[in-house]
Amino acid sequence: MTVPSGRRERKKAATRQKIADAALRLFLERGYDAVGIREVAAEADVAVTTLFAHFASKEALVFEQDEDFGQRLTRAVTGRAPHEPLVPALHHEILALVHHCTADSAAPVWGMIDESPALRAYEESMLVRHAEALATAITDDPALSQTPTASRTIARFVIDAYALAREAADPQAAVDEIFRMIEAAWEAARPSRPA
Fold first, then answer.
1. Other C-beta atoms within 10 Å of 141: how many?
2. Residue 174, CB half-sphere, CA atoms under 13 Å: how many?
3. Could you give the CA distance from residue 4 to residue 2 in angstroms, rounded to a whole number?
């Protein structure tokens, strides 16, 4: 008898979440550098090979929502209604992501990330990866008619908006201010229309 794919996917997602929750609990209790992969696997009651089947590295355990972050940004491009402007859709999504990561409950996690060179480096590479995926989505949208260079530039600005706003005293005001500049850059990058 075959297991329905929906059930199997739910089980995989539950295992992944159990591992991530165990890792974060240990990291926050004892410090990121003080906890090893074997300890995380034991705490989650899984084999080390199972842990690595779900997470490519120790750093990835902290950023377990990494894939969702990237998908949300690309969906802001690909899921827009016909003729819906791009920049407001991205503004809305970045604002939601910033609200999530600046919630009081997220402060201990960001404190841990800020204190760890390995986690800061991982976050930086993750954000570059998301900027590239976002740029590809913008370039591939025929309604947007952007060059790869313009798409990559706007995508990096959007990712930088997230990173800068997360550290701002007033994250919403920072997102709004940055997106006014992104809107101006987007308008400047638009292909000129024949007269």
1. 15
2. 18
3. 6
Cα(87)–Cα(122) distance, integer angstroms: 27
How many beta carbons lie within 10 A of that of residue 89, not counting itself? 17
In this structure, the number of other CB atoms found within 10 A of the CB of residue 64 comes to: 17
Phi, psi of 12 (to 5 degrees): -60, -45
Under DSSP, the state recorded for 31 is -
Q: Are 138 and 77 in contact (CB under 8 A)?
A: yes
Residue type, 83: H
pTM over 0.90, yes/no: no
86: part of which helix (H) or strand (E)?
helix 86-101
Q: How many CB atoms lie within 10 A of CB 30?
A: 11
Q: What is the pLDDT of residues 119-178, one digit of tens each?
A: 999 999 999 999 999 999 999 998 888 889 999 999 999 999 999 998 899 999 999 999
